[in-house]
Amino acid sequence: MGRREQARRDAAFARGEIGVDGAAVEEARDAAEVEQDKAREQLLRGRTWIGREFLTWLLWRSEEGEPLVKMEEGGLVVLFTGRIVLRGIHGEVTELSARGTLAPYSEIVKHAIDRGCLVHQARIRFTVGERVWEAMVDAEHFDVKSAKLPELLTDEEDDRQAERLDLTERLSAFIDALVDAYLAVRRSRTWSQKVVPELKAWARGDARTSAPMLQKATRARRATA
């Protein structure tokens, strides 16, 4: 065995990584450590962290209830409503699930974001003009689940199928446009200099009033009840 290899083994032994026989030491880890490793692996797999960061940014931007991007039909308004799931890779809480009309904008969700959690899954409403789409969006594979399309305007079955397809494509286009808007900001210098500090201030409750958004959320939920 060369001197370099011996030195490497001595250093590993000093750190407790190997035993006197040169075999790796298997450390007993508590459940929290195992859970954090699983969360970290899941976060990095398939660039899930980008999806979570996007959904968290979108939640923050949507609170004022104003159009976020311009589509052919008009401004696109986004509203998180119903169930939301947040996940993190460190701290005492690595997953938080909240339900309710105003749950996504609640203090408990903001507190979780302030402590390092990001939005992993959420029910989102997309409104353009008088037409409304809803879908559950998942950050891991960026899946769109349980989509609810606007009321169809055509009567013939063939036409209705074509309209459903068109509305589904529009929903996909909305998400693509929002992701493009997020990436444009994410790549810019303002991300670290302005966006991140403002988002953190929002999570701490130091910025913005959510009253207009809360009123819109309540009215929207009642309208679909």
- Portion of residues in beta strands equals 15-25%
Q: Note the quaternary state here.
A: single chain
Reading the helices and strands in chain order gives HHHEEEHEEEHHH
State the domain count. 1
Which outline best applies? elongated
Describe the structure.
The chain has 225 residues and is α+β, with helices and mostly antiparallel strands. The protein has one domain (46-224). It is built from seven helices and six strands; from the N terminus they run αααβββαβββααα. Strands 1, 2, 3, 4, 5 and 6 form a six-stranded antiparallel β-sheet that branches. The longest helix is centred in the C-terminal third of the chain and has 30 residues, at 157-186. The radius of gyration is 23 Å and the shape is elongated. It starts with a helix and ends with a helix. Mean pLDDT is 80; it is low at 25-29 and 220-225.
